[in-house]
Amino acid sequence: MRALSRRERILAGAAAALLLLVAGATVYQTRRGGEGTLRWQAVGRGDVEKAITATGALKPKTFVDVGTQVSGQLRHILVAIGDRVEAGQLLAEIDPTVYRTRVAADRARIKDLEGQLRERRAERDLAAIRSQRQQRLAQGNVSSREAQDTARAEHLAAIARLEQVEAKLEEANATLDGDAANLGYTRILAPISGTVVDIPATEGQTLNASQTAPTILRVADLDTMTVWAQVSEADVPRLSVGMPAYFTTLGEPGRRWTGTVRQILPTPTVDNDVVLFSVLVDVANPDMRLMSEMTAQVFFVEARAENVVVAPRGVLKPTAKTGIWTARVETGSGVETRQVKTGLVTRTQAEVVEGLAPGDKAALVAKARKTKP
User: Fold this and answer.
1) CA distances (Å), 45 to each of 16, 316, 352, in order?
2) pTM, two decimal places
């Protein structure tokens, strides 16, 4: 066996000393319980909120697609996109020539029938006089039975002819009302007060209302907007009408708009086997910052605790009792394990009722490592 050289003996000694130093540090850390490797989080005061999140899109709460009930050429559009309009304001006009002609013809027919009506009334009155005369003559045995019957029949026939003209006059008046209404429909009026947000039609376009009512423009009330939030079927049972909610937009992520749940639509939409329900939240829009089809990040507030002691969820270790946890807290004499009672708990925060105070530092609970099989 070869004797070690002086250089080799020095290197071997240094290696042994290094091993002893590492072993000593390990023993020291083990005796201290491993406090040197702990990560600390501060306990403070703030708000804890438990919320259900969803995405949605903004739409006006009230809007009307303004169409036409008559066919014809769109002669004038009197407004532009973005214009503010009031209910009853003239928005557009359709060529009224055909409808004016029909109304004029109806009125002329009514005049003719009114003349016929006066003629038939005169015939009725004359027939009534003749029938009465024959009755008086019959009392004196001057008139024959045949003459009496003839006078009575002429009277009844005159009444029938009068009723026919009266019926035709009623029909003509009804036709006039319908044609006059169609003439009025050539003037497109605003059904509600609001803002013109879309004009799909163009001046000069021929509109055919015989099958479907063509849309000329859309008027929307932008003072109140509605968020159509898409909520998963797993979260919908936790929502209810009247629940508080707020949302932010992509353009102003730092600003919150608040409202309450107005309606939960019962019919879902299915997209790639994902079932989503529409939940509607109304919000005031006084400064007109909210616009149609904006994307919204919506938060439905289930519970909220304000100005309470708040601890990071990661420093709490659950126990067998609900609402009771343990936490390792840094003190002047070392690390102390405390029992902590909580109130509202979310995935990231917990409301502390007992056991921790603002300013305490608690250690994050180490996650168990998964062992490979």
Assistant:
1) 52, 16, 10
2) 0.67
